């Protein structure tokens, strides 16, 4: 992966789901609601001074949200953080850098 360029979209892995789960409460707080489903479907990653993850998450039967999560460098010992998100997305909406 080239530094700064997002990767191609890939199917979500167990690691992607774990990252999404770590920021679920942050998104619920920002949106002031609980999500009955929070299933990571696909993702892109971007190597910066740490790593950005762009993750498409299913939050209800036909409702999807795109989240951007930042994972700092290991020596910084910081938790992952929800840095941005886009709601009202569809299953087939392209996961783009935002």
Please tell me about this protein's structure.
The protein is α+β, with helices and mostly antiparallel strands and 98 residues long. It is 18% helix and 42% strand. The chain has one helix and five strands. It has a five-stranded antiparallel β-sheet with strand order 1-2-3-4-5, covered by helices on one side. β2 and β3 form a beta hairpin. The longest helix is centred in the N-terminal third of the chain and has 18 residues, at 14-31. The radius of gyration is 13 Å and the shape is globular. The two termini are 19 Å apart. The model has no long low-confidence stretch (mean pLDDT 90). Belongs to the cystatin family. One of its GO terms (molecular function) is cysteine-type endopeptidase inhibitor activity.
Which structural class best describes the helix and strand composition? alpha+beta
Q: How far is the first residue's CA from the last residue's CA?
A: 19 Å
Biggest sheet architecture: 5 strands, antiparallel
Shape: globular
Beta content: 35-45%
Portion of residues in helices?
Answer: 10-25%
The total strand number stands at 5
Rounded to an integer, what's the Rg over CA atoms? 13 Å
Query: Helix-strand pattern, N to C?
Result: EHEEEE
Strand order of the largest sheet: 1-2-3-4-5
Q: What would the average pLDDT be, to the nearest integer?
A: 90
Low-pLDDT ranges: none
Counting H and I runs of at least 4 residues, what is the number of helices?
1
